[in-house]
Each structure stands twice: as structure tokens, then as C-alpha cells.
Write a structure and sequence with these properties.
Chain lengths: 270, 335
């Protein structure tokens, strides 16, 4: 049997000012990233997934829609893949929180002094790290194949995706919290929203050839503006109005997502 | 000695007044999970909240640990109000919930160090503290393992370590040993009691294991239907609410005579004669038995055999509610 001797500590006391939100966010984000970084095998597979989709879907797109794109299919499709990766990654992330609801880890964190909003923001920001890695890999692999990289536009494009992704991730967490007592509902709702959002954004197939109602519907889809902005940015056109609308869509999504998400997090112990 | 301020002697660690909590199930149904609990806990106490599933134990604990807000009433924990100053309360308490505090996809060491950092320790101190706890709770070799790879007993010990990493002066344990086999339960308790000594902690725990409340806690608060129905030491509860039972065997012809003698014992009640055995409840069995034997001898009633049955907490619960806690413990799920 061992004895426990407590080490001397520099300690927080009641006179300490209220907690630093940024520190809390960093703690939550670091914790979330650990299992990802500790598991290189699944990290590797996650990183190359967008490439697989690109390699399989790109040639079909080019074949069936060749006339529309000319040689520019990759210029059109690489930004799509990056948006799609964001969409899939962040919209499913609530499932991780659901798991922590079931095991009790979330409850434990609710009893710690971590601020409730950091529990949401830290988690939402964490998704951006693997996303950034995936983007770099896609761009690095595609640039030799008729993909024209404009670094400035690409970096702004990734920043825009990060803002949008934080919003979408927050919605996903809010959904997870809302359905935590019937957890299967998470996937039902997530899938119900995911596909219309994706198809009505012109991400995979251009909407220009679709029926009029779809083009109208796409105007109400924030993702459409993000996709347009990404294509514009990746073609090197940083000052276009499409970029501005993309930022508006991303910022509105992030603001709404964080509001809804933080409110849900505050009630998540009930 | 502790990370948070040590409470001075005599100060009340927990004080609740008429605490209630309702859960609205549907428009027409509201469950009154807790119906007015007033409880005072002093520094250094080890209090077990005992009751059947659904009695309101966990709901009470969740209010005291700031997870849910009371519907009415007040609660002060570690000097702060749970409703208006929850963050002050959170800094000062440790909590081991019914589930696993450590994330299943995380590594043991990462979670423990991270928990220390959350409570404001710097990384180096957090690592030191985590190392000490892993050692003390016999988890040292598992620091690099994933939490999901641990056995049930190991995971529960890790949960306790997570609750202790910031050396709180007040620890809440929600059904700490549920689901563990007897050996692991005993082992976990060894650890908890040792930690208590070393940290000079106040501990409040819930349990539906009678023997656990009986042997571990110095004070047992019996809760049923959201109310405290008894609050004393285990021995005190047994003496006042159940009493010892004497069972004395005599020849059939002497049954009536012996029953009369038994009825004259101090504090005697429930004198029952079945076959050739007379049983009687008394406050102090070991003292009453020789008295009865002597009285029987004087009265010319030869006694064939005699026993003292000490009561269990289940007898206490049975006397209080008319129900056995054993039957109830597999009943409806706790909230």
C-alpha cells in the first residue's frame, strides 16, 4: 500500500477573478483533440478520405458535365470537396458529445468550474484542426493536376470555412443536447438536413442546369453562398461580391449556431 | 492542505432548507422527486444517503453539486449558495457521478492531468498530483491506456481519482460502488476511506446497498419519496427504529409463561410466540438476554436455546415504511 503525500500547489482561491474564457476554451479544445492526435491510424484515414471522394467523383463529373467546365473541373470541384469535408465533419460532431452524455464525462465537466460556453466553443473549434489538415493535403495533391492554387484566396477561403464550420458544429452540438434522451434522433435529424443542404448548394453538381425551383431554394441556403465564395476565392478573386456574401452567410451561421449551442449547453444538465 | 480553502471547524459544510425539485413529465404529470429536504452536514462527516431507487437521492445530490437548480428552498454548499453562486461551489467540491467521469476515448493520464488543469493547477503540479493519485489508487501502470480498455473496477477507481485531483474538502459520491463485484467494492472502499483520512474530507454519498451504509457511514440519512424519514448513526437508527430481537426456545408447555416474562423486559415490544419459540424486540439485546434467562430460571422455566438477532438497516426501513429496501432496489429507475 502506498501513502499519498500532497504536493504543494499554487492554487486558485475565492478571491481569484472570474475565470478566463480563452483558457477554458483552450482546455476543452486540447482535451477534444487528444484522442484524435493519439490515434494516428484513424487520423491518417480521416485525412485521405476527401482525396478518395475527389478521385472517384471528379472524373464522373468531368465526363458527364465536361461541356460545362471545359478543363476547369478541378478548379470547380476542389473547393466543393473542402466545403463538403467541413459539412460532414462538423454536422456529425454532436455524436461525440452524445457519447460523453452516456458515459458521464460531460456531467463530470459540468461540475467543474469550466464555463458552460467554453464547453461548446472549445468543441466547435476543435473540428477546424483536422479540417485544416485535410485541406492542406487536398490542395497539395491536386495542385500538380491542373489545379491552379492562389495562396491568398485559399487561406481566406479556409478562414471562411472555419467560421462557417464553428457555426455548423455548434448546431450539431445543440441538436445532440436536444435529443440526448432519444439519441437515435440525432442521426435522423442530421441526415434530414444534410442532404438538402448539400444538394441545394450546388456543391456536387451545378444548379444552373436544374429546375427553377431548385435555384430559388438555393438562394435560401446559406451553404450556397459559402460554396460560391469558396470557388471565387480559390480562383484568386478575393474582392468579388460573392466573397462578401460568403462571409455574411458564414458569420450569420456562426452567430446563430453559437447562440443556440450555448443556450443548449446551459441547460444540458437537466 | 487542500487546494481550496480548508473549512474551519464547526462551520457547516452543507446546509439545505426545504429543498424541493419537481420534474415536469408531461402537461398533466409532474414528478415531485424531492419534497422538502433539510440537511446539515458538518466538516469531516461521512454521510450516506440511503433509500430505494427513485427516492430522490440522486436528484438531491445533483442539486447540491449545481447540476440542476432547486424548484424551491435553499442550499448552501461549502459556504456558497448553489443557485446564485454555482461557480464558487464548483471550485470547492469534488464530484463522482454515477457514470464514468473520464471520457472513454481518452487516455487515463491525459484525463487526470486535464482535470487538474481545469481546476487551475499548472501542468507540472497537475502531473505530479495525477501521478500520486494513480499510485495511491493502484492505477499507475494504466496511465497510457485508453479509458475504454479499463475494467469496471479500474474505471471506478479512476472516477474517484478524477474527483480528488484538486484535493477538495468536500466530496460527493453518487452510488460509487454500484455494479462492482463484492471484492472490487471492498477495494474501492479501502481507497475512499484512506483518501478521506489523508485529505481530511467531508464525504456525502448515495447508496442503495444496506451493508455499505451500515459499515462505512458514520451517519445515515434515510430518504423515501423525496423526504428524509430518518437521520442518525446506523446504530442509533437500529436501536430506536428497529431494536434487537431475542429468540428463545422453551418446552411447548412453557410458551405462555415465557411470553409474559419477555413482555416485562425494559422496552419490550412485538412479543410473538411461534411453535416453541418466543421472540421479542428490545432496545439492547445483549443486556436483555441474560436478564430474561435469569427471570426464566427464577420462574422455573427451563430455556433450551437463546439467540440475539441484531437488526439491519433494512429492518429500520421496514419499520419506517412498511416496505423492505431489498424488494425495492430493483424497482423503477432512479431519476
Amino acid at each position: 500500500m502506498t501513502t499519498l503525500t500532497l504536493s504543494a500547489t499554487s492554487t486558485p482561491t475565492s478571491t481569484q477573478p472570474s475565470r478566463n474564457l480563452l483558457r477554458d476554451i483552450r482546455i476543452v479544445m486540447t482535451r477534444e483533440l487528444k484522442p484524435v492526435l493519439r490515434d494516428p491510424f484513424s487520423l491518417l484515414f480521416g485525412m485521405i478520405q476527401p482525396l478518395i471522394f475527389l478521385a472517384l467523383f471528379g472524373p464522373l463529373l468531368s465526363g458527364s458535365m465536361g461541356g460545362t467546365f471545359g478543363d476547369g473541373v478541378w478548379q470547380w470541384f476542389v473547393p466543393s470537396i473542402l466545403v463538403m469535408t467541413t459539412l460532414f465533419g462538423t454536422s456529425t460532431t454532436g455524436a461525440n458529445l452524445l457519447f460523453e452524455f452516456q458515459t458521464g464525462a460531460h456531467e463530470r465537466m459540468l461540475v467543474t468550474p469550466l464555463s458552460r460556453s467554453s464547453l461548446l466553443i472549445g468543441r466547435a473549434l476543435k473540428e477546424m484542426v483536422p479540417l485544416f489538415g485535410q485541406a492542406v493535403i487536398v490542395i497539395a495533391v491536386m495542385t500538380p493536376f491542373a489545379f491552379d492554387l492562389h495562396l491568398g484566396g485559399a487561406l481566406i477561403g479556409l478562414a471562411l470555412l472555419a467560421v462557417f464550420g464553428v457555426g455548423l458544429g455548434s448546431f450539431s452540438y445543440a441538436l445532440a443536447i436536444a435529443v440526448r434522451k432519444q439519441d437515435w434522433m440525432f442521426w435522423v435529424v442530421q441526415q434530414t438536413f444534410l442532404f438538402p443542404l448539400m444538394i441545394l448548394s450546388g456543391m456536387l453538381l451545378p444548379l444552373e442546369t436544374g429546375p427553377g425551383w431548385m435555384r430559388v431554394a438555393s438562394k435560401f441556403n446559406p451553404l450556397s453562398y459559402v460554396v460560391d465564395a469558396e470557388r471565387t476565392l480559390f480562383s484568386g478573386d478575393v474582392l468579388s461580391s460573392a466573397v462578401l456574401w460568403g462571409w455574411v452567410a458564414a458569420i450569420v451561421t456562426a452567430a446563430l449556431g453559437l447562440t443556440v449551442g450555448i443556450r443548449a449547453m446551459l441547460r444540458s444538465a437537466d | 492542505m487542500s487546494v481550496v480553502e480548508t473549512l474551519t471547524e464547526g462551520e457547516i459544510v452543507i446546509s439545505t432548507r426545504a429543498l424541493t425539485r419537481d420534474f415536469v413529465v408531461s402537461r398533466t404529470e409532474t414528478v415531485h422527486a424531492v419534497r422538502g429536504i433539510s440537511l446539515h452536514v458538518e466538516p469531516g462527516e461521512l454521510v450516506a444517503v440511503l433509500g430505494p431507487n427513485g427516492a430522490g437521492k440522486t436528484t438531491t445530490l445533483r442539486m447540491l453539486t449545481t447540476l440542476i437548480t432547486p424548484t424551491s428552498g435553499t442550499a448552501t454548499v461549502a459556504g456558497f449558495d448553489v443557485t446564485t453562486q454555482p461557480s464558487q461551489v464548483r471550485r470547492r467540491i469534488g464530484y463522482v457521478g454515477q457514470g464514468n467521469g473520464a471520457g472513454h476515448s481518452q487516455r487515463v493520464g491525459d484525463e487526470l492531468v486535464g482535470q487538474g488543469v481545469i481546476y487551475g493547477l499548472d501542468r507540472r503540479t497537475a502531473k505530479l498530483r495525477a501521478g500520486e493519485l494513480l499510485e495511491a489508487l493502484e492505477l499507475k501502470d494504466l496511465a497510457q491506456r485508453k479509458v475504454s480498455d479499463l475494467s469496471g473496477g479500474q474505471r471506478r477507481r479512476l472516477d474517484v481519482a478524477m474527483g480528488l485531483v484538486h484535493a477538495p474538502s468536500l466530496l460527493f459520491l453518487d452510488e460509487p460502488s454500484t455494479g462492482l463485484d463484492p471484492q472490487n467494492r471492498a477495494n474501492l472502499w479501502d481507497h475512499i476511506l484512506r483518501m478521506r483520512e489523508q485529505y481530511a474530507m467531508t464525504i456525502v454519498l448515495t447508496t442503495h446497498y444496506l451493508d455499505e451504509a451500515d459499515s462505512m457511514a458514520e451517519r445515515v440519512v434515510v430518504v423515501d419519496h423525496g423526504e428524509v424519514i430518518a437521520d442518525d448513526t446506523a446504530d442509533g437508527l437500529k436501536a430506536t427504529l428497529a431494536g434487537d430481537r431475542l429468540a428463545v426456545t422453551v418446552a411447548p408447555g412453557n410458551i405462555t409463561r415465557l411470553s409474559e416474562l419477555a413482555g416485562k423486559l425494559p422496552g419490550a415490544r412485538e412479543v410473538i410466540a411461534v411453535g416453541d419459540e418466543v421472540s421479542v424486540r428490545v432496545a439492547d439485546g445483549p443486556a436483555a438476554l441474560p436478564e430474561l434467562v435469569a427471570a426464566a430460571q427464577r420462574g422455573g422455566v427451563p430455556i433450551a436455546a437463546a439467540q440475539v438477532h441484531r437488526p439491519t438497516l433494512d429492518d429500520v426501513f421496514l419499520n419506517l415504511t412498511g416496505r423492505s429496501l431489498r424488494e425495492d432496489s430493483n424497482g423503477k429507475a432512479a431519476r
